[in-house]
Amino acid sequence: MTNSLASQIDRTGTSPVRAGLEIDIDAVESYFKENIDNFSGSITVTQFKGGQSNPTYKVEADNKAWVIRRKPPGTLVPSAHAVDREYRILCALQQTDVPVPKAFSLCMDKNVLGTEFFVMEFLNGRVFWDRLLPDMTTNQRMKIYDALNNGISTLHGVDANEVGLDTFGKSGGYVDRQLRRWGRQYLEADDERIPEMDNLIGWLKDHNPKNQETSIVHGDLTLNNVIFHPSAPDIIGILDWELSTLGNP
User: Fold this and answer.
1) Cα gap 10→158, rounded to integer Å
2) How many Å apart are CA 55 and CA 72, to the nearest integer?
3) 230, 94 in Cβ contact below 8 A?
4) Is 203 exposed, middle or buried (0-12, 13-18, 19+ CB in 10 A)?
5) Judging by DSSP bridges, how do beta strands 215-217 and 226-228 pair with one another?
6) Contact call for residues 104 and 119 (beta carbons, < 8 A)
7) How far apart, in whole angstroms, are the C-alpha atoms of residue 43 and residue 47?
8) Per-residue pLDDT of the chain (249 residues; tens, 9 = 90+)
9) How far apart (Å, rounded) are the C-alpha atoms in residues 80 and 197?
10) How many domains in the chain?
11) Are 61 and 108 in contact (CB under 8 A)?
């Protein structure tokens, strides 16, 4: 899909829950009554339009809102869509200066909504789906990307041991594993080989740094996985932590 076409697709806000991803409204209400503080009233549930591999829903009741992030139904790749890992890192980072939504409750009982899920804070802000930010001035774009870079830097400055994430991933060899994985996927593809890509794979292997520090890495920290303040160029929440691990910043 081209950038111009992608920018024309409306991914903002919510819409009715898509077919095949419905959840039991009564079960949600019952779970919230037992597990979410200060919950009251009848609920409405909609689904966020933005593309996410883990279906994400907005739950509203009595002028309040929460978010359910749920493992998708069906047969899945083992260890993929690990909502429990997302919940764990959100809880850990709440102790730090990294802006993340508050995580309220994790449910690993598939009988409640059909798959595992967790409940987190709803953040009212802006998500930029077009990374070119065409409606902004140069100065406005600079401030947005400065904020994104500061968020990445803040994350990489967190001591995983101090926030209980020392077992969240392997402590070394991150770049080696990435090079092997992406190189293997390229070599196993049916597409025509590209000499420049072959040269690049070799160059990266030869210049892989021997000494690599380890920090928490997000795994997919793009502009559309960040919520900005409704009017200011400030990040209020970093989302979609399903690929997070320990690695080289």
Assistant:
1) 35
2) 6
3) no
4) exposed
5) unpaired
6) yes
7) 13
8) 444 434 444 556 899 999 999 999 999 999 999 999 999 999 999 999 876 789 999 999 999 999 999 999 886 766 678 899 999 999 999 999 999 999 999 999 999 999 999 999 999 999 999 999 999 999 999 999 999 999 999 999 999 999 999 999 988 888 888 899 889 888 888 788 899 999 999 999 999 888 788 999 999 999 999 999 999 999 999 999 999 999 998
9) 28
10) 2
11) no
206-222 core/surface letters (b: 16 or more CB in 10 A; e: else): eeeeeeeebebbbeebe
CA 155 to chain centre: 14
Question: Of 166, 148, 163, 162, whose CA–CA distance to 214 is shortest?
Answer: 166
The letter for the amino acid at 75 is T
What is the spatial order of strands in the sheet that 64-70 belongs to? 14-15, 44-48, 56-61, 64-70, 117-121, 103-107
CA neighbours closer than 13 Å in the CB half-sphere of residue 177: 11
Q: Are residues 86 and 19 located together in one domain of the fold?
A: yes
Q: Which domain holds residue 176?
A: 138-247
The single residue listed with the structure tokens 């929440």 is 237
Please report, for the domain that includes residue 69, its CATH number: 3.30.200.20
pTM confidence score: 0.88
129 within domain boundaries: no
**The residue type at 76:** L
